[in-house]
Recover the amino acids of this structure.
């Protein structure tokens, strides 16, 4: 049965007034354990893309390389999605764009909270100011990740192309002053560790402390989004795919852990959910990713219906998509280890 974090376990406990949600979540986990291809339970978690465009042009992100028309999800369409999945416990309003570019983001988060759904998002911090910051600070059941990929303007702006380091730091610091003390644990810094910024990881911990944040997640893998044309670049900046950097990576992580303990920063190292034939991906059984146009994609590591599309929630009901022949075949391919090419990058035993 797939892992559940302490935070998710606590969220489950808060669903005591909604036993149908707990039963659905347990049923979903049993479905994964038994490797059922037809599932009687719908996902209890979902990722929904509020917008498919961004104000940054980060070279490792697929948005920088595509020419899709910018599309924002409207709140009435988000509500329609929630109605199709009435037993949701977790929803991440995050896609391949900057969520705060969608002015209906806050109402969507409020709608989710009103339905006792644990909400979350990741922002680049550039728009974390003014009315949006005050509204986000008032939310009580929403977790926010803020990307900080460097401790200096030179490194940060080389990676977060189009962003201004000083502006992002100022926004974060002022936002943390707005957030009620009891909700500060819902705000987390996120750093994607690569060859271009690993030398500043220790200083990022100190910066996180200075900005008023209490936790930092280090992501030490680079996603290629299931695309061959992005795989080469991802490998070129990845620390984990280059054996010559493995010793340096271990040294950096050791130092960062020591500094985090000294600065009282809660450090988490996210090395990715990598799978094998005996430990297969749980996404086909537990969750889905819905694009801003309603297209259903199997997971957030793909996040593009041009790569694979299971259906569209504005054209057919999600429950029909979830148990469609295409989705069932997708599960069977994982069970048989006959993986689609776009899934193979998440498996360590596929060359």
């Amino acid at each position: 049965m797939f892992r559940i974090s302490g935070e998710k376990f606590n969220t489950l406990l808060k669903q005591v007034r909604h036993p149908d949600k707990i039963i659905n979540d347990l049923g979903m986990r049993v479905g994964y354990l038994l490797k059922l291809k037809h599932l009687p339970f719908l996902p209890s978690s979902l990722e929904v893309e509020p917008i498919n465009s961004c104000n940054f042009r980060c070279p490792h992100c697929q948005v920088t390389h595509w020419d899709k028309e910018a599309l924002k999800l409207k709140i009435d369409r988000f509500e329609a999605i929630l109605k199709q999945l009435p037993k949701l416990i977790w929803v991440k309003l995050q896609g391949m764009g900057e969520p705060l570019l969608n002015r209906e983001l806050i109402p969507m988060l409020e709608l989710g909270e009103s339905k006792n759904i644990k909400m979350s998002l990741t922002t680049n911090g550039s728009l974390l100011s003014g009315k949006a910051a005050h509204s986000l600070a008032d939310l009580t059941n929403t977790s926010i990740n803020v990307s900080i990929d460097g401790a200096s303007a030179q490194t940060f702006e080389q990676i977060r192309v189009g962003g201004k380091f000083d502006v992002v730091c100022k926004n974060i610091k002022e936002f943390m002053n707005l957030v009620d003390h009891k909700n500060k644990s819902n705000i987390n810094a996120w750093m994607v560790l690569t060859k271009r910024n690993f030398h500043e990881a220790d200083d990022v911990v100190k910066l996180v402390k200075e900005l008023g944040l209490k936790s930092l997640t280090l992501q030490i893998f680079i996603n290629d989004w299931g695309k061959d044309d992005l795989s080469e670049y991802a490998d070129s900046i990845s620390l984990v795919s280059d054996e010559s950097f493995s010793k340096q990576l271990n040294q950096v992580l050791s130092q960062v852990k020591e500094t985090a303990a000294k600065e009282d920063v809660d450090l988490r190292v996210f090395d990715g959910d990598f799978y094998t034939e005996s430990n297969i991906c749980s996404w086909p059984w537990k969750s889905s990713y819905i694009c801003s146009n309603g297209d259903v994609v199997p997971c957030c590591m793909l996040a593009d219906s041009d790569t694979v599309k299971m259906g569209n929630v504005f054209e057919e009901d999600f429950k029909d998509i979830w148990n469609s022949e295409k989705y069932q075949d997708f599960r069977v391919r994982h069970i048989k280890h006959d993986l689609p090419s776009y899934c193979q990058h998440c498996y360590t035993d596929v060359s």
